[in-house]
Amino acid sequence: MRFSGWRVLKEGLTGNKGWGPQWRDPEPKRDYDVVIIGGGGHGLATAYYLAAEHGITNVAVLEKGYLGGGNVGRNTTIVRANYYLPGNSEFYSHSLRLWEGLEQELNYNAMMSQRGILNLYHNDGQRDAAVRRGNSIINQGDDAELLNRDQVRALAPYLNFDNNRFPIMGALMQRRAGTARHDAVAWGFARGADMRGVDLIQNCEVTGIDVEAGKVTGVQTSRGVIRAKKVALAAAGRSGQVAAMAGLTLPIESHVLQAFVSEGVKPLIDQVITFAEGHLYISQSDKGGLVFGSYLDFYSSYAARGNLPMVEHTMENCVAMVPAVSKARLLRSWGGIMDMTPDGSPIIDHAPIDGLYLNCGWCYGGFKATPGSGNAYAHLIATDRPHGAAAWFKLDRFRSGYGLMDEEGTGAQHNLH
Ligand SMILES: Cc1cc2nc3c(=O)[nH]c(=O)nc-3n(C[C@H](O)[C@H](O)[C@H](O)COP(=O)(O)OP(=O)(O)OC[C@H]3O[C@@H](n4cnc5c(N)ncnc54)[C@H](O)[C@@H]3O)c2cc1C
């Protein structure tokens, strides 16, 4: 089934009776070439690129809940390629380029909206950092512009420019950044993978990873044993728990990150705005809700719900930045489990067990990585060589210290930054 304007028109005129399920609901087979653990954005994108670019279709994605029920459907939907450090910057650049052609490639409306991002700066030091970051982004081949206070005011007049604590001096802008509808991205990749023969198995929890003589042979699941030549982790916040099934300890701490949505209001915020001093990001959804978030809840947890001190902190920052928000009612909030690494950068690599692959450590930035991560991970699984854009994402860097990309500057303990 292809989507098109004509199809929408035809269905509209004929009672919308022709839409079918977007993917099959198959029983798991006994044996696959590749089993992917986790039906979030990264697992589904990996399955799609394995089939679409490498012709590997004897693949199962095993998801313990429902497709897209994890972080891919819980994030604040921001897509950008404005990372600073080598290793990260070329990867996110690759990912943004994939985003730009994704809807056409998948024939699926992921509501990709390149509305631009403004990273506000509030003092001279932050301005200097923004200049350096901007130069690095331009060097990478992506776009960045330094805006002064008046230019920011012209784009976002509702911001609080006269806040004594956090005066707005300007912003680093990336016009190609923006937002995409998060769960539609998961559905688009799921549909694309399914159309190429990948089995998407929901309600199938992996409970064990079978290893014989140093080689992976399959997985134990809530729906029985499934054998596989290759097993690929894509379990995001649960990566530490899943890796432990193969006897591995990963350099990952799991923390909760919360998101908030207000009631729908008239169009107010055109871009994505981030507030450097208090660490807040805000955008407006197509339904009118203001979507925002801030820091992690600063203790390790697997509970996907947030705590009140961070709610208070986030509201305080939000009202300091956009005073008009104080008049809106908060509609809902939720949490997701983040797989935090000590250097704030991800891992896409072989595990030290033959046939086992790792994709984890996305911290709070893995949504924008979805196509790039799936693309690079599929390349690694298919060829056993790292993709050029993800060549730095080695597990070994945490042992050797070579190749660390301390993008966050928070060090090993995220609750201490
Ligand atoms: C509140 C919030 C805001 C965020 N905002 C942004 C943002 O604006 N921009 C951005 O780039 N990133 C953002 N992120 C981060 C981003 O959402 C994640 O980094 C990314 O979604 C993680 O990859 P994923 O989509 O594959 O994860 P998930 O969707 O969590 O997929 C992992 C899947 O593995 C499954 N699983 C786990 N264990 C097992 C098992 N044993 N057996 C079978 N299945 C299993 C889970 O059920 C889950 O569905 C945000 C995250 C949160 C929570």
- Sheet bearing the most strands, described? 9 strands, mixed
Low-confidence stretches: none
Distance between the termini: 49 Å
How do the helices and strands follow one another from N- to C-terminus?
A: HEHEEHEHEHEEHEEEEHEEEEEHEEEHH
Structure commentary:
With 417 residues, the protein is of the alpha+beta class. Helices cover 28% and strands 26% of the residues. It has ten helices and 19 strands. The protein has helices at residues 5-13, 41-54, 88-106, 124-139, 149-155, 182-195, 239-244, 308-321, 370-383, 397-400, and strands at residues 31-37, 59-62, 78-79, 117-121, 145-148, 170-174, 178-179, 199-201, 206-212, 215-221, 224-233, 253-264, 272-275, 280-284, 289-293, 296-300, 330-340, 347-350, 356-360. Strands 4, 5, 6, 12, 13, 14, 15, 16 and 17 form a nine-stranded mixed sheet that branches. Strand 10 and strand 11 form a beta hairpin. Helix 3 packs across helix 9 (370-383). The longest helix has 19 residues, at 88-106. The chain is globular and about 65 Å long. Bound molecules: flavin-adenine dinucleotide.
